[in-house]
Amino acid sequence: MNHVQAMSILISTFHHARNPSAIDQGTFARYTERTAFERPLTSGVAYAVRVLHSERKEFEKQQGWSIRRMDTLEQTPVHKDDEYDRDGLEPSPVQAEYAPVIFAQDTIAHVISVDMLSGEEDRENVLRARESGKGVLTAPFRLLKTNRLGVIKTFAVYKTDLPSNATPNERIQATDGYLGGVLDIESLVEKLLQQLASKQTILVNVYDTTNISHPISMYGSNVSSDGVKHVSALNFGDPFRRHEMRCRFKQKPPWPWLGITTATGILVIALLIGQIFHATINRIAKVEDDYHEMMVLKKRAEAADVAKSQFLATVSHEIRTPMNGVLGMLHMLMDTNLDVTQQDYVSTAQASGKALVSLINEVLDQAKIESGKLELEAVCFDVRATLDEVLSLFSGKSQEKGVELAVYISDKVPDVLIGDPGRFRQIITNLMGNSIKFTEKGHIFVMVHLVEEVIESSEEFKMESSLKCTLSGLHVADKRQSWRSFVAFNQEGSASFTSSSLGQINLIVSVEDTGVGIPLEAQSRIFTPFMQVGPSIARIHGGTGIGLSISKCLVQLMKGEIGFVSLPKIGSTFTFTAVFTNGRCNWNEQKSQQINNPSNSVSSEFHGMRALIVDPRTVRARVSQYHMKRLGVHSEVVSDLNHGLSYLRTDNRVTNMILIEQEIWDTDLGMSSLFVKNLRDIDANVPPKLFILANSINSSRVGVANGFSTPFVIMKPLRVSMLAASLQRAMGVGNKGNCTNGELSGSSLSKLLQGRKILVVDDNNVNLRVAAAALKKYGADVVCTDSGKKAITFLKPPHQFDACFMDIQMPEMDGFAATKRIRDMESDINSRIQLGQLPVEAYGNASSWKVPILAMTADVIQATNEQCQKCGMDGYVSKPFEAEQLYQEVSRFFHVKPNQNS
């Protein structure tokens, strides 16, 4: 019976869990015949599938036969194999569901297509089996073909995700089908008797005693005997039915031999029990020894983990401290007068230093992930501005290669989300960094949508995978395959991704490229830390091989999933999901975000303008429209210059600007010149401005014949701040594009730091010079000191300092202890002023003293960050720091002074 139940697991695994099924009737018949030795007490096995009435027509069409009635089959007299006519059976009557047999052993193959629910006894058997989750038996009946007495043992086959404590109703809903084993009672008993062979003749009778008043004889004759009778219960695994076996010798057994055998058996059992008891005691002692050894190893492992964290913190500090000086001095050197060659040398050295710092950060991230100490922030951020920042990082490399680089974010994605923008940016940067590294032609395209939007619009996303609808016109790996294993796209998991009304935002981000792709043999280890695709990858392209591993861990922390699809020589598409919260920030946070992200504070001079985009590719035109819409510009798209002229002539509204793709302009300069000439003839008060959208400045030919002015060139990738600056310069509005490439303007920091008095504390003289130079550059009044004790003296109220940048690791007194002493001193003075023990006038008429103290350290371990907050520090700046990092910290404490120009 165990072997019969095991077959139900085989069917669940290879029939229901596979699409298409890995089993057919021929396979089932061959397998069951070849494994019949495992089931010597059964005369055949069959499997019936559960079919609802709404599925009957489609099911019969797939099987090629109609579902037949069992009651007709039961009434049919016994036939030989060559005389049996299955097609002569009547179709099963209409009912709510059916259980037709689809697989059967050759010995009972005649039952295929027969509905097990149409027979009264079998129907009760099937319904009890699926409700109870156990094997059940039918009453004895005459087997077809043999006319011998038999019973059927039935097991229900459930879906794999059925819980162990499921209710009967849940079991019914989770039922896939029913597996039955036919037990020939006469053969069963005869085989048992062969195993119990004896010199004396044994008479055996088997009865079904479910109805004790009318037992049913299943085996044996009714010949009476005077021998000793023994009655024992039989258990076939069905608690509903009862069976008995009655055995007797024709003659009385020899009592002396029975006594000797019994005594010998008891002695053997006693010896076995003693052996088991002795082995058990030895086993318990060994388990205790292993436990103590395991605890010792556990303590050693914990100590090793602590030592590793301390080692990483120390090494990080020791490496990042001199790197802070190197990068700071290089940055100061770039502000001096250098020739072209010197600028190139300094830029190369600075890029190498930043690459080293990035490598250190990746190794530290991996260590924090392994120790489980990596935590995410929950702050408001603008996802569109974040993607613009990432584009700025790769714009130079993409222009150098001539690779199309673009971002598209769905209108349904909210402007402000709550989450960790730094880690979100890190994931996309890792994926785009790999794409730009391995892509020499074509495009890299980042798409951001809501998960429910993708689920509801699967056909639309299917169309985007066609050749004509790609960004560059090259073949791409179908991005739908990259999310094929996501729970969000399973039929039962999709319901959990429709909760945007409750404030939960489920994003899905795809990074698509047309690079070299990932070899098939390497795709299984792509997320393994420190693993490269091939032995030559690190030598050709560089990298550590942990970017994707870190990205996967970050995605999991964001309650998302990540997957990919890659085709060699075609490209790769990585897709991940992340869960955020719909952000509604207060006024101060929104104002701070607008300052931190200049792309958000674009002036409104473009609102209401109209633009015409000339681009034959649908996806690329949609990207251009997306960025124009962010500026408040309404845009229309045409496929070529002729259609553009037709649109301008027929449209009565004013078109302020025309954006033409570089490939359209460069294909035929004669046609481009004719377009410009015809454009001049169109009656318009102010002719529209011409712009060329180019990937590479080196390959763009934008000259126009007839002495006409050269169109303006807008370099891709498009970002809203860069696009606004280009339009402002060309159209003579706004600030004429002072902001370049979406980077933070130095004037923003100058407005905040101008005239501020700041104390910098660091025991390293080089770091002091770098920090002081960086702050003085933006107009701050900087005072430097090299110890924590001196810092306490400087910051004793009353003082004139607006902020303090404090190093952490210093001799005599570290930054933690110094900060705690300063906070205690401030708290004591504030309480005494409030109690009237100290005059307010002696402390600058300030009743509350608390100077902002920002940690300035090369140690970026999470524990250090927590200790900074615990001792009373207000912020955290990791060395080496840059202008943007400084701004993000000081903007929380300083505001632009009223007398400064804004």
From TrEMBL:
GO terms for molecular function: cytokinin receptor activity; phosphorelay sensor kinase activity; protein histidine kinase binding. This is histidine kinase. Its EC number is 2.7.13.3. InterPro entries: 2C_system_His_kinase, CHASE_dom, CHASE_sf, CheY-like_superfamily, HATPase_C_sf, HATPase_dom, His_kinase_dom, HisK_dim/P_dom. PROSITE patterns: CHASE, HIS_KIN, RESPONSE_REGULATORY. The keyword Transmembrane helix applies. Its main location: endoplasmic reticulum. It is a multi-pass membrane protein. It is found in: Endoplasmic reticulum membrane. Keywords: Kinase, Membrane, Phosphoprotein, Transferase, Transmembrane, Transmembrane helix. It comes from Nicotiana tabacum. The keyword rRNA-binding does not apply. GO terms for biological process: cellular response to stress; regulation of meristem development; regulation of seed germination; regulation of shoot system development; response to water deprivation. It catalyses: ATP + protein L-histidine = ADP + protein N-phospho-L-histidine. SMART domains: CHASE, HATPase_c, HisKA, REC. One of its GO terms (cellular component) is endoplasmic reticulum membrane.
